[in-house]
Amino acid sequence: MNQVIQNMFELSDQQLFDIAEYLDSGMRCFFHKKTGEIKTIIDPNNGYGEEEDPIQQEIEENWGDYFEFERMPSHDAYEIRVDFTETIDNEELQDKLMDALRKSKPFRHFKDQIDNSGEYRQKWFDYQKQRFIAYIKKQINDHYLALELKTGSSIL
Predict the structure, then answer these.
(1) Nearest to 87 by CA among 123, 134, 53, 112
(2) What is the residue range of 30's domain?
(3) Is residue 46 part of a domain?
(4) What is the pLDDT of residue 110?
(5) Mean pLDDT within 34-61
(6) What Cα–Cα distance (Å) separates residue 154 from each residue in 64, 144, 146, 149, 150?
(7) Helix ranges restricted to H, 25-156
(8) What's the number of domains the chain is made of?
(9) At what angle do helices 106-115 and 91-102 cross, to 10 degrees?
């Protein structure tokens, strides 16, 4: 098995979730292909991190050694909230969450509702975690398939 792919497939679910959380909080997240190390930097496109970060400089100087994870697009994050809302067995809360998602700033309104929902708050966090993990795993699988297509042979 190609060592890069093996290292990526050996990431734990907690590491995969951490990657998704870094991305969701406005960080850029990189996987070092040789060492398996995860590195994060502040995304300068978010208005932070004006100073040159030594980690950023190291990544830029060795770009080929890294795989950059992509942040989940907001429309996908929105769909996760819709999907979760559809699984709820409490009709009153389900209606409140759907209403929140129809308003401007739907993420903010969804958060306000779910934060005051008792047991459903933890259910949301668990659901979101699993969907974030699946999103990061898909990026790894897509990267593997791209490498396979590029080389013309199976990497595993």
Answers:
(1) 123
(2) 3-71
(3) yes
(4) 98
(5) 82
(6) 21, 9, 11, 8, 10
(7) 54-61, 74-87, 91-102, 106-115, 119-151
(8) 1
(9) 160
Residue 48 lies in a domain: yes
Instruction: Please indicate, yes or no, if residue 18 is contained in any of the structural domains.
Output: yes
Average pLDDT over residues 120-126: 97
Model confidence, pTM = 0.79
Task: Work out the average pLDDT over 121-135.
Answer: 95
140 found inside a domain: no
pLDDT of 1 over the 50 cut = no
Burial track 25-42 (b if 16+ CB lie within 10 A, e otherwise): eebbbbbbbeeeebbbbb
Closest among 93, 94, 80, 91 to 125, alpha carbons compared = 80
Contacts of 86 (CB under 8 A, 6+ apart): 94
